[in-house]
Queue: 2 jobs
Job 1
Amino acid sequence: MKYLIPLILSVSVAHAQNAPKQKPPVPRMADGKPDLSGIWQGGGAAGLTFAIGAENAKAARPDAAQGGRGGGGGARPEPAPYQDWVQPKLKEIRDRRLIDDPSGRCLLVGVPRITSMPLPIKIVQTKDEVIFMYETFHAFRVIPTDGRGHPDDMDPSFMGDSVGHWEGDTLVVDVTGFNDKTWLGVGGASIHSDALHVVERYQRVDYDTITYNVFIEDPKVFTKSFNTAPSYLSLRPGERLREYECIADNQDIQRFEELLKNPALFVRPPQ
Amino acid sequence: MRALFALTVLVIAAPAFAHHSFAAEYDGDKPITLKGVVTKVEWENPHMHFYMNVTDDKGKVEEWKFEGFPPNMLVRQGWKRDVTLKMGDSITVFAWKARNGMNLAHSREITLADGKKILSGPPAGTGGGN
């Protein structure tokens, strides 16, 4: 008998080694909700940026997460629907080659942009909260999922105020209370106001993928609400958050200041 | 108007490897390839920098400075601090020159002494076009 057990074990191991690799199932909490805990990297499907998708784009599906860059799920990327008065400001931003990007000065980048930054995110889920810790500028979000609403004393902030709830297996996060000091993404989708309202939807569709869909409205700068192109977060097993202190050795800030003294060096010439 | 929309889409779709505008500081239309010897590596967030002495045909030595990815990103693509790139290494760097006219450039790829090529920074035009 004492020889049989090692034999069975070795046969089992050999079998496991030959079997096709199967993903573990989506982990679940004691209450049955999917567990989003882990280290993740956002920005999938749209590369490492955040593409604005078609109006009323369909929610991302697992197959959409696998395909294409920017416009997965059949959503044809369209420009963000800015009001006319914003267009000259957008042109100025482009002509100044994005030197005014607040992230270049290490300011918190806001939601949803933080999700697509090229540094990982640690999610810790409990029964009543989902906690996001971002390596980017050490931002964090503590998102209650216990049914409470936004507080009535919100100060306008870079990351806004987030409250969540579950719709089936999807974590839905309502974010409001922003200031107007962040950019939505890069380039054309930059400006927003303090009326920005973001609704994020996170669904762990398999062991190593969370689909990420975002609804955006801001009646002060956009003509209508819209959804971003589907994106996703990928699990990063074995990864750990590292320090990303941004100010101490940020030589870009000094170089920006020097360039701003002589705009002819970098401002796009009139065409 | 349609042209403006198309432009906007292009700008939105630009990759965002770095946290700041590449285009404000560096000129994507001015690529440069330089060969030299590393004199210093600053392995610091939010972006690494390294220095290199470049000797021209007449024996004149000029120091160049290069920006690159954050150390966190370098580590995740296989770099090791003080090992992958260190003082005394003979390397060739592909980069784009700074707009300020200094001996400063944004590195993209380094060819090590043994011929191995490694990525050291984002592509040109990261945010804001060239």
Job 2
Amino acid sequence: MTIFLKNSWAYLSVILSLIVIIPILIIFLFLFNTGDDTWLHLKNTVLTSYIVNSLILLIFSALGTLIIGVTSAWLVAMYIFPFKKYIEWLLVLPLAIPSYALAYVYSDLLNYGGFLTLTFSYIINNEINAINFYSIYGAIFVFIFSLYPYVYLLARQAFIVQSGTYIEVAKVSGLNLLSIFYKVAIPLARPALIGGVILVMMETLADFGVADYLGIETFTKGIYKAWFNLGDIVSAGKLSIILLITISLIISVEKILRGKAEFSNDTRSSRNFKFFSLNKYFGITALIICSIPVIIGFLIPFATLIIWSIQSVKNVNLDIFINLFISSFSLALLASCICILFAVFIIYGVRTNSAIAGPFARIASLGYSIPGAVAAVGVLIPLVWLDNLINNFLLQYFDISIGLLLTGSWFALLFAYLVRFLALSMHSVESSFIKIPMSLDYVAKVLGSSNRSILIKVHARMGLGGISLGLLIVFIDVLKELPATMILRPFGLSTLAIKAHEFAMDERLGDAAIPLLAIVVVCLIPLFILARGIRQ
Amino acid sequence: MKMKKNLKITDLSHQYKNGKSIKNFNLEVTSNEIVCILGPSGSGKTTLLRLIAGFEDPFAGEIKVGNNIVFGSKYIPTEKRSIGMLFQDIALFPHLSVKNNIGFSLSKNSKYNSTINKLLKKVSLEGFADRFSNSISGGEQQRVALARALANNPDIMLLDEPFGSLDSWSKFDIALDIIKILKNSKTPTIMVSHDPQEAMRLADRIIVMLDGSIIDEGSPKELYYNSKHPFSAKLIGPTSSYIFMSKSGILNTPFGKISVNSNKSIKYEVIIRPEAFTFSRSSNKTFILNIISHKYLGILTEVKIFDANSKKNIKFLLFSNIFKKAISSKKLLFNKDWAFVFPIK
């Protein structure tokens, strides 16, 4: 055996990382493509609206989630009020409802004769018109109430960690709690708050379902239309690169800000914090403030989906539903297994030799910042090229035409999921592997175990928690995924998310409810695990 | 039991990116020998173990176990080098019982249980087979780690500061037990330590490392009586250290004259062990104690005196019982055989 073979796991890690990096690199090549007439047409007609709409969505979603997330996090982190221990974890539940499901529900409830329109009319004793939800305001509303938990979770954690000494110092300096909030808690929690807002911005930019349903022209929708309606991959690629650069800019700004504010993560001075009790009226006010996002973001849409499902259950074609269920679950299961295998091999390779494998793994983990539609385009381009190559070869030498073999296959779809979701499974695996001391690897080595054997006997067993969590997170994200699936799905394949979206686009919201409810119920599983962590 | 082999390291060199390195390192360890590599942090002692184990690769040199080259013209990976190793953080697999930890490298054949039972007996841990690492003490954990390391009957044992995590009052008992087991199993052992006391008590031979090179070597007694380097003289046992300039081959110390080989006027570091100072009423070779102050340190006392020649205060260490006798007569006898003299380059 040579020293080269000794590093075989590190080289495997590099190869696996490169497989994921290639589609990302291909998107960047569109920077140098001048584009054709279709691109010029898009540029002169809709590009400005894509930019304006996406920016408005970004800014207002960020502001809204920041206000709701920070307020609720501050209240649960600092005060004791009625039902706080339930509210604390109920606040994360909107993460179980896909944003597009929220759009379907509220567009119906606020329509003519919709439940909320009628309720408001009854309350003010005066008939009110339908609220036009098919607008950018509707989309902002949806993003705020479905994505605020990202800010809430990070802000709550930051407030809990920082509290203790800093707040006591501020109190003895004569500051009241409101001043402490602005002058101490918010500046100290800034990196966490920015981190949460960045997640919201990335999810907003990556969205396809909400924009498509509410008829808003955004980048992701533009990418989908460029490929599907215009059949122009160059335009899709060029739109993707603009989106990718925007996201890179946001991440860079966040990194600069985070780098300067890193001191605020210092927990050495933190200690057990004594919660402040609120009197009866303030306590109820805090309860109401924290309940509103739960009611709007989870209870109303969840209850509506249940009611719709009950109403439409008689229309359900059980065979079709079972098929949808099987295809969605098989896709999600396959994708999550592939992602977790890649993640385990890549992270383990980095562990065996971080100098060789580390840099590639870091680039591969950037994938989560790439919207599904962009990942789809990145995968589509090399596969179309490969398909054409194979087809031309067979046509020339064997007079056989097989058409596009890989494009529009499960392979292409799973590849796109891998590019998009590998980072999630990598983070999960890495956080569990990092807890295994390196001395255990060394012991196993001197005891005669090969790297493969160490992975099976030590890491796979000790890191089982992280591996399972990574599997579950990717499973759920694939289950909810829309744009990449719509662009790359094989002919005739549908998923619960796609079917729900198709029903919704046909205004058959009742029929959309059952597949959506299936997704929500599955998504609740990891959230209950997370909630248990919060309760403890 | 298979015949234990010797370890031979020839001209081994290694360099880290931060510039720290091991230069032309040579070492031979014979069967049944416990060698301790002693040195401060960053001296390269742990790196040496990592190179022998194969966790790092040198850029030059040869490592040979018995007649097999494991690094050099051939390359044998860690898992095939037949090495046992103990670590400071003990590193028992937390998801495995004591029995499964010990049996980690053993194939589960008919001899599996009997081998583990023998090893448990060897480390005096019968009845611990089904316990987990979190339910046994640090000393017991280290003995489990030893049994695990011995399970494959390794050709060489490497100990990377293995007693550092143990309580100071039980450390030496556990360490002596472990060394006894290793001696009985005739396993050549290299132990790394930064604790001179540990090295003196446990090792047959001590190698002192500084900046990646061997600066001194010998049995604990040889190193104590005949240190070849000022660093090792000060490391092994208590000393008092001074710098003097020679004049015509003589060093005029406050305690007496010491002759040196060279007639040139150069600076010397003089390192004196407490044994150099004894009490004598009769001898005329005594020097006068102009005591300014003293500090009782247990078996030793640190005394501050005024040196009329240099007109400076100087401190030195001597045994407390000697000081007690000398305090009234204010005279001490100086035996220069206990002074190590090193020219300063």
